[in-house]
Amino acid sequence: MMSSKNLIHIKQFCVYHEIENTFITELHNYGLVKIILLEEDEYFQPEQLPTVEKMIRLHYDLKINLEGLDVIANLLSKIEGLQQDLTATQNKLRLYEQHQIE
């Protein structure tokens, strides 16, 4: 059985951030956060905290709706993938150039 010890309690998180619990549920419905149900309470994993806080800022400070958040999250994910591909390509190029010099 999973322990709630290392999880973030959604109700407490929402009270702290002064947001509605339904906002986290909506993020979950869009696949932007994974909710863990444990002993009738809802939690999310600490690794998701930066994403959730980013979505809160975008939604509440910049007034971006949930559809917009979904698009932004997908674009950021694609950018991250492209950055990883670019880094891998740059590393291969460096190895190739070093091999050519020798």
Q: Mean of the pLDDT scores?
A: 93
Number of strands: 3
Radius of gyration equals 19 Å
| Overall tally of domains | 1
Low-confidence stretches: none
Protein name: MerR family transcriptional regulator
Pfam families: MerR_2
Organism: Flavobacterium tructae
Keywords: Coiled coil
Protein architecture, described:
This is MerR family transcriptional regulator. The protein is mainly alpha-helical and 102 residues long. It contains four helices and three strands; from the N terminus they run E-H-H-E-E-H-H. It has a three-stranded antiparallel beta sheet with strand order 1-3-2. Strand 2 (36-38) and strand 3 form a beta hairpin. The N and C termini lie far apart (57 Å).
List keywords for this structure.
MerR family transcriptional regulator, three-stranded antiparallel beta sheet, Multidrug-efflux Transporter Regulator, Chain: A, Domain 2, coiled coil, mainly alpha
What would you say about this model in short?
The protein has helices at residues 10-17, 21-29, 49-61, 66-101; strands spanning 8-9, 36-38, 41-44. With 102 residues, the protein is mainly α.
